[in-house]
Each structure stands twice: as structure tokens, then as C-alpha cells.
Design a protein that fits this description.
Elements: H1 4-11, E1 17-18, H2 24-34, E2 38-43, E3 46-52, H3 53-61, H4 89-99, E4 103-108, E5 111-117, H5 118-140
Parallel strand pairs: 1-2
Antiparallel strand pairs: 2-3, 4-5
Length: about 140
């Protein structure tokens, strides 16, 4: 089975970040510009949280607040669930489902090396299943 490392090799390991003092509006602009659903919140080169579109919808829109008035640290998720590069992608899917999260920062030792989403996991699982199907078809046809 594939690992988080395999996903990062395919998609790249660039992580988009924001500081806790910046506004939620700035975070949304950055997410839109980079076409991502979450940003890692960093302070003094340390991960202190994650802000996602879900945080915005639940903690700004539904509460009638204005994104230009609220700093990221007021709505970010502080209990961040993370994985290492050797983690199996099926385990990541279980973790995301159990913890009800859509993004997992990836750490190697104490260094942030990537961020994967539920979409990345689903794509990797589909690709793996397609490879298995292709191998089985070739086996059946006698083309090992």
C-alpha cells in the first residue's frame, strides 16, 4: 500500500502558511490564490494550528462575524492531528474519519514537510486500486 511519502512525491511538499495575527480574510485570499482548503498557522517557525474553509464557515459565517475583523488565532483549530511520511494511506483515511478532519500536516521528526488532504488520500487509493485492476487484467490475459 502507498504511504504519505508517496503522496508528497506526487503532489509536492509545499505547505502554505499564515501567522495567527493575520485576518481570516487574508487567510481566505491566500487559500483562493493557492487553490487549497487549509493553511498551516505558524508562529516562530512552530505549527500552532490549522485554519480551513470549514473553520471559516462554522466560526465566521454562521456566527455573523466579518472575516476582515477576526484574526486567524480566534478560529483556527489548535488540536492538530498529524502523521509522518511513513504512514499508510489507509491508516490516514481511518484517522481522518475518526478525528473528523480533512487535512493532516506531515512531520518528519519535528519538521513540517507537507500537508495532505482527504482528496489526496482518495486520489491515491483510487490510483492504487486501478493499478491492481490493471495487474489482474494482465495476469488473466497471461501478460505478466
Amino acid at each position: 500500500m502507498r504511504t504519505v511519502h508517496d503522496i508528497l512525491q506526487g503532489k509536492g511538499s509545499e505547505v502554505y502558511t499564515i501567522t495567527p495575527e493575520e485576518t481570516v480574510y487574508t487567510a481566505l485570499q491566500k487559500m483562493a490564490e493557492k487553490n487549497v482548503g487549509a493553511l498551516v498557522v505558524m508562529e516562530n517557525d512552530k505549527v500552532i494550528g490549522l485554519i480551513s474553509e470549514r473553520d471559516y464557515a462554522r466560526k465566521i459565517v454562521l456566527k455573523g462575524k466579518f472575516s476582515k475583523d477576526v484574526p486567524v488565532n480566534e478560529i483556527m483549530t489548535v488540536e492538530v492531528v498529524s502523521v509522518g511520511p511513513e504512514e499508510d494511506i489507509e491508516r490516514c483515511m481511518q484517522l481522518m474519519t475518526y478525528e473528523r478532519v480533512r487535512h493532516l500536516p506531515v512531520f518528519e521528526k519535528d519538521r513540517l514537510i507537507g500537508l495532505i488532504s482527504v482528496g489526496d488520500i482518495v486520489k491515491a487509493i483510487i490510483e492504487h486500486k486501478e493499478e491492481i485492476i490493471h495487474q489482474l487484467e494482465n495476469y488473466i490475459k497471461g501478460r505478466r
